[in-house]
Structure formats: structure tokens, C-alpha cells
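ok trying this again, last paste got cut off
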Amino acid sequence: MTDRPRIALYPGSFDPVTRGHEDIARRGLQLADRVIVAVAEVATQVKRPRFTIDQRLDMLAQSFAGEPAIQPARFSGLLVDYAREVGATLVIRGLRAVSDFEYEFQMAQMNRALSSELETVFLVPNHDFDYLSASLVREIASLGGDVSRFVAPHVAAALKGP
């Protein structure tokens, strides 16, 4: 056994970060000493981002202020390469529904094929967040709906902005 801290990656677009994302990242600390919330510079799925990467990193930093074990960061390229670069051995992913599983399972298997030392752990969200997605939050906010239950106050304010 080694005394090295266990580092986990929690990758995603986080556009915007939701209460569900926050829950998964914090619960990741039960599995690792440090969780890097890694914002992908290039999305693996076709998405039109609402916020720039810098804006998302800023929102993440505000969401996890005072929690030094959770660190927002950006990455580009393959997740397995970034994991090697930062010394991560664990990938954390949230599964909201069975429909998430197939894609996430394929990604986990491919990451494992590319890097045998990288394990993926799936976390089921708190039942208060199992229906929550960033795309739904963006849609509700764009139509003038109240998203304050789903995101931190600074994120809700950003969603109301230009």
C-alpha cells in the first residue's frame, strides 16, 4: 500500500454546475482524498455550451469555495492522459437513470482498455437530484423559470444574465 493521496477525476461539461454535480463531487471524497472536477474543453457529446469554460470554472470554484479537497480544473484530450498527468487512479461518474448507463459503461470500458490502472466508479445521485440535468436547468432558465432549487445562488444569477 502506498501513502500517496488517492486522486479522483469527476469529468464533465458542468454547463452549468448543478446541485446534483455538487452532491456527486462531495460524495466522491468518501472514495478519494482529492476530487478534481475536470471540465472538458472539447465535449464528447454534441452540445451547445451556455457558458465559456472560464465561466464554468469560476462557478465551480465558487461552489466548492472552502473545500480544498475539491479542485476545479480544465482538461483537453483523452481523459486517461489527463489522469496520468495529475496522478488520478479513479474516475467518478453519476448515473441518474438507466438511460445514462449504456454510454457511461462504454466510456468506462474504453478508458479501462486505454489505461488499466484507471478505475471508474458510478454514483447514484441523492434522490432529490436523480432527475436533474444541466440541460434541463438551462432550458428552464432560458424560459424564465426559477432554478434556485437546482443550482447554487451564484449559478442562478449567472443563468439570468446576458
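PB: full thing came through this time. The chain has a mean pLDDT of 92.
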